[in-house]
Design goal:
The protein has one domain. 14% of the residues lie in helices and 40% in strands. A hairpin with a 6-residue loop joins strand 5 and strand 6. It is built from two helices and eleven strands, in the order H-E-E-E-E-E-E-H-E-E-E-E-E. By secondary structure, the chain is mostly beta strands.
């Protein structure tokens, strides 16, 4: 009996090795990977929908991208109390020439992107006003301020290819900026 087990075991091992060997003509297809975009600038542009308060903006700019040097512009959000603003977000990659407007890609791939806003301390509510046809995107939003207050507003762009469900708890974070916010 022992004489049959050894040759069968060796034969099974040889077939396993030969069977697992890749065909030289077979070409592997690399997985599709969506490269993260470099976002150096996040600009929030506010327009009072009633035309009573002055237009304003808040800019975060880190010219060399994530890591490296500190941001050279990091504005506070300053809005008038009791006012409703239309906010448009502009995203730029200023590490390339010409400057790349990342907002265009976010809009084109709206079914894969979602802006999330977290207000802490400041008396403001934020509602996304643009959609991909199914879910909101957040490049456009409405900000309604209440009483004078101070706090923060965290702006997060989530990348959610194939998993977007309108919530902020899933996906990769493309950019996250915590702005100090003053309602006056």
């Amino acid at each position: 009996m022992k004489t049959f087990k050894l040759p069968i075991t060796i034969l099974v091992m040889i077939l396993g090795i030969v069977g697992c060997k890749k065909d030289k003509d077979e070409v592997e297809t690399p997985p599709i990977v969506n490269e993260e975009e470099v976002i150096t600038t996040v600009k929030l542009m506010f327009t009072d929908i009633d035309g009573m308060a002055a237009d304003t903006e808040a800019v975060f700019r880190d010219p060399d991208g994530e890591g490296g040097q500190s941001p050279d512009i990091f504005d506070d959000i300053v809005l008038a109390a009791g006012t409703t603003y239309q906010c448009t977000i502009l995203l730029l990659n200023e590490t390339v020439t010409p400057i790349d407007t990342i907002s265009n890609e976010v809009l084109a791939e709206g079914d894969e992107h979602l802006f999330c806003f977290d207000v802490a301390g400041a008396d403001a509510t934020i509602v996304r006003t643009d959609t991909d046809g199914t879910y909101e995107i957040g490049l456009e939003s409405q900000w309604t301020t209440g009483l004078a207050s101070q706090g923060t507003v965290t702006v997060v762009l989530k990348h959610q290819p194939g998993i977007k469900d309108g919530t902020c708890g899933i996906g990769e974070t493309d950019v996250e900026v915590v702005f100090d916010a003053t309602i006056q």
